[in-house]
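[Meeting: bench + compute handoff]

Bench side (C.D.) handed over the final construct sequence. Compute side (W.E.) agreed to return the predicted structure before the next meeting so the bench team could plan truncations. Sequence as handed over:
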Amino acid sequence: MIPADWPFWAHVLLFVAAAAAIALAGSRMAGLADRLADRTGLGEAVTGTLFLGLITALPGITASVTAALQGRPGMAVSNAMGGIAIQTAFLAIADIFYTRANLEHAAASAANMLQTTILIGLMTLVLLAMAGPEATVFHVHPATPLLFIAAGYGVYLVYRSSGSPMWRPRQTPETVEDVPAPESHHESLSKLILGLVLTAIVVLAAGVAAADAAGHIADATGVSESVMGGLGLAFATSLPELVTTIAAVRRGALTLAVSDIVGGNLFDVLFVCMADLAWLEGSLYHAKGVTAREMFLTGLTILLNVILLTGLIYRQKRGPGNIGFESLLILIFYVGGFLIVSLAMS
């Protein structure tokens, strides 16, 4: 833990340094994960969910748990929901970098659509838990183990659908299929795994530092925990997703780019579960610091992913500004939603 008596500028400097460490480590992840997908034969969708999604989610997990342990339940929840919202917006940003066609059209796969559907269901369970009656078993809300079970089964369904899909999207000249590189079998599997482990350690430590610094910054500036968690902390801990997604798009690993975001968001929902386990004063979903802002953020993230799923199904080839209609709507609703949270809700 960082001493609270550090000067304000020191906390800001630490926050910026932690965010930079997360971004630098994330820049190596896309290449490692893409090569691991080819080397193991798991495919980009499964690798993006199980490996890249989990590793890039580590800063957020540590940040939400740290916030809960420090008595900041609002920041713990808003970091999770704000992280999902901003990472969904990152896909719209990545769409700008892919100029051949709409990213959601080119990266069409059954696994990506299934992941998005499962994510919407998990976030709906979080919203129902916050809106429903307070109940605990050994200080843990019943929704927490239910979310763990649902997420685990969802990952299993993604794995099965990736290996043996019951249907496939129509192939077009703009569709980029997940085809392993010919030289992939020469890669050292142990070196690839070691590289991912080392980057995971870096982002894990940086996530703890970012959460601690963000809490002190919120105290010093008077910014609400919801805004600080949903904007500042969520952005810092989501930098690996932004860096790896753009890097994956530049490498042509489009399925990996989408599955990194959507698969990572599956783990982001579990931030709330982990924070609920760390919050010893009852149900985190009904803690004093969890307000209408967190419920609004959760509803906003559900809406953003419904728009994303619509784009994945409709598969518009080109749209305004050479991005899909879903990317434009995601950016509009994301910016509008956070303006409401920051300015209109108190």
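W.E. noted at the follow-up: The chain has a mean pLDDT of 79. C.D. will use this when planning the next construct.
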